Amino acid sequence: MSEGIVLFAHGSRDAQWARPFEQLAATLSHKVKGPVRVAYLEAMRPSLEEAIAALASDVDRIRVVPVFLGHGGHVKEDLPQLLEAARERHPEVHFSLDAPIGEQPAVIEAIAVAIAGDCS
Amino acid sequence: MSEGIVLFAHGSRDAQWARPFEQLAATLSHKVKGPVRVAYLEAMRPSLEEAIAALASDVDRIRVVPVFLGHGGHVKEDLPQLLEAARERHPEVHFSLDAPIGEQPAVIEAIAVAIAGDCS
């Protein structure tokens, strides 16, 4: 059984916006065994559907990680609908959905350390 | 000289959305000497203007930290305009503006570690 990870982010018309998410995918790729892809809700590609379609033939499981700090409508409403459509389209793949990364205490702590470190 | 920090976030109509930012402010408050406030671009309060007005009489310097992962229009266009208005309104305060937290390599690393840790 192999697992792919899709990092799901908001997207923007500004190309620079994607950089942290691309860096996150590159960093994460060195920490996990399976493939890691970024997907965007709007304005950028691939979409979640496209990223999942590209992975679906290579893995048995796909884990979707919302790379959002806040837990609002995009994570609560848009993403579950997109994931439900993906489940119907790829019944042979097991999908799981993480909490948004802003709900991880370790992430909040790291952001606080990064901000406080700049005070010195 | 004392410094206040304003954590500038997007905002949402969903009250739960603010939780990571409030937790970040609480965590950061234990790591720095001065006051820490959260401010929102839209849909939540206080606004940046309101947060700065509340701090301006207590500190000499205000550091604005964009709590955004991506570096797009909100950080590049909306925030500089809001900050310019604050500078005109509070000429006695020294303002500084950080890069968005998604540009901090330590933050990206922490997010990657948090995601990879869930694989075990």
Q: Could you name the key traits of this structure?
A:
120 residues; 18% strand; homodimer
Question: Hey, roughly how much beta strand do the residues of chain A contain?
Answer: 15-25%
Gross geometry of chain A: globular
Query: What share of the residues of chain A lie within helices?
Result: 40-55%
What is the CATH fold-level name of chain A?
Rossmann fold
Strand element count of chain A: 4
The neighbouring-strand order within the major sheet of chain A is 2-1-3-4
Give a quick account of the main beta sheet of chain A: strands, pairing sense, barrel closure: 4 strands, parallel
Low-confidence stretches of chain A: none
The helix/strand class of chain A is alpha/beta
Order of helices and strands of chain A: EHEHEHEH
Average pLDDT rating of chain A: 94
Rounded Rg of chain A: 15 Å
CATH domain class name of chain A:
Alpha Beta
Number of helices of chain A: 4
Largest interface: A-B, 48 and 48 residues
Domains of chain A (count): 1
Q: Report how far the terminal alpha carbons of chain A are from each other.
A: 47 Å
